[in-house]
User: Fold this.
Amino acid sequence: MTSEQPFHAECLDIYGRIPGSSGGGYHQSEIFEMIWIKKGKGAFMIDLEKRQILDNTLYCLFPGQIHRITPERELVGYKIAFSEEFLCAGSAFASLPPALNHTSRGKRLLVARFNAGTQMDIENVIDTIIWEYRNQQRLRADMLHGLLKILVAYFSRRFDTDALPRLPGNDQIVFNRFMKLLDRNFRRQKQVSAYAADLAVTSNYLSEVVKRASGHSASYHIQQRLLLEAKRKALTNAGRMKEIALELGFEDPSSFSKFFKSKTGMNFSDFRNSWLNS
Assistant:
């Protein structure tokens, strides 16, 4: 269960810092975030992928992603953060839209730019979200649910859904459930058989479905999820490698160190220093 509010909306501060981050470093959210840069210049680092900031750009960040804004001048923008449960409340989105579900996560950084007409529409939606969030009016929650779904719909249709994998219904369900379980349990469950048991399927069946859905094996996803979190911890957690290794479910620091170096080609300390000093 996330400790964050299921929904909040706010302006970027005068220096373009993400609200809630500290010391100009990396910020990590447990829920979705949409960051609308209306005007500004600088760099946006998201899970070690660097993008130049452009005017009138909407970035979508998935739960757990780390990010850092390095502005070259004052930024004007907003952050809209929401949980999956908040977005899917009601009937408009019974489940996450394709651009936000597990099939597309990790494949690309979701960034959208809009023409002048659509830009004005989106600004109106975001301005109304900010106003509704700040003011305790009747039916506030209903308004925020509706406005958020409009914003997500604008964003989602910027992406070619034909380019997203089209899976048989049951494959899609099993794959999404596996990825959700992986997000929750990767620290303590590192065997495909454990996830198969949770899903009441065989290990072979789970492996086949995951391979069809993503092009990679279930064990690959488990290792990559663990590695991704290790990289995130390296940049957001000031603790020693021993503490991070234990937090990620390794029995001893040496096994974590070998795992990290085999996957990145760098030892943990060198990786941390190279990215924090970049």
In short: Residues 169-276 form a domain with the Arc Repressor Mutant, subunit A fold (CATH 1.10.10.60). The beta strands are 7-11, 27-28, 32-39, 42-46, 49-52, 57-61, 66-71, 76-82, 110-113. The mean pLDDT is 84.
